[in-house]
Design brief:
five-stranded parallel β-sheet; FAD/NAD(P)-binding domain; alpha/beta; 11 helices; about 500 residues; about 25% strand
Length: about 500
Amino acid sequence: MNNKDVKKMVEIIDEQMRKEGLSRRDALKLMGLGGAAAWMGGASDAQAATKASASSDKKAKIVIVGGGAGGIMAAARLRKAAPNAEIVLIAPNEIHLYQPGQVFMAAGLYTEDDIKGKNADLIPDGVKWVKDEVKVFDPDNNSVETAKNGKIKYDFLVVATGLQYDYERIEGLTVDLIGQKGISSVYLNDPVKGTAKGGVITWEWFKQMRAAAEKADPDNPIEVICTQPSTPIKCGGAPQKILYLSDDMLRGNSPLGGKDVHENARFTFAKKGKKLFGIKSYNQTLLKLTVDYGNIYDAFGHDLVAIDADKKLATFDYHYLEKGEWDEDLEEFEVIPMVKKVQMKYDFIHIVPPMKAVDAVANSPIGWQKGSAKGWMAADRHTLQHIKYKNVFGIGDILGIPLGKTGGSARHHGPILQENLIAVMEGKEPKAQFDGYTVCPLKTQYGQIMLAEFNYNGPAPSFPLDPSVPRWIWWAFDLYMLKPMYWNLMMKGLM
């Protein structure tokens, strides 16, 4: 998208904002933008939530591990904030993927090339890039050990490794099966090899599903299952995005067009949790949507544990509560957690894989050693500083904190990381506080997004609009504007 395209898109969005009851001045102020130039060149002073002013002229060696969104943002911010520091980025990937774009790939609106960039174009001048992978973290000796370059010492460490997918945790599933026999997963990618196969495969899955639905009828609908694992995941709304977009595609609203055949398909959304969304107002909107759509059924308490690709049979652990004996002391019945195996037939299944911390972190002293966050980086949820090693900070998906495995969260981690790492460099206590901000632009249909923003305290909307209402304006932002903002502002530490 060039500057002319951006200017035109801003004009369209301005007009829609006015229809929503927002003046252009107020809307742009709330976004922290000052017009079309700001989208591409820099953020305004109104972007207080993602600004940081701390700087230091001290000499120190800062090592950043990871070349995804978090690592690149950290490098950009720290290069400016600590001009005399030696900054080393350790990352094997030549290709950088705009991962939020994979859902738009699945919907037939982006291609694989649309979400690819080169890390060489993003890494700031003056940052040494070691094209390698860290195998061992040794915080007791202020060093990391790489696969090819041996040990690298540091004064300060930034952990930005992201997470890893664990498809093989599902019995019978291998990565090679994805894209075959009705199986898809939008998450499948390999930045090191420069591929985003999940988006490509899922768009083909959309098309195959539509072709099957056109041959079916309401009395014998095709069976479609969309799953969400019980583990923490990158972008918690993505499983539902695929659910709603694939259903809407059958209504003829995708680039494929065609007649409405959604009644010829039955969708099941399976997750271990008991809600579609953890925040009441957002959950109510989504529950109403599934009822209104008429062909989506929620299978709460169901965690996918096995798949038989040849028989097209999915096996779930079904978690439920059973009433036990009467407790005379508590004057209530005992509630017994139960689990049983449940099998579901399918024609098409979209699988979101279980996810876990990268092995090098999980198997090191910097990971939580016990509890529900075991393996994830043991960071303070507010300062992003390691709970034991005060010269170690984290950013992005690897953090073992309650919220934050989204790109929007990583953007808010950036200034907190900058402020606090610089403070420690200067011999001060870290005082900047991450409030848990997370954003999920949940695509409820083609052309509609519910912009679910929240933090540790609950809903945290940035705009004076009801955030539980899906709107075209957020679709336009996500589809047309956020990608150039990502490449030109976020990855340069400007927002």
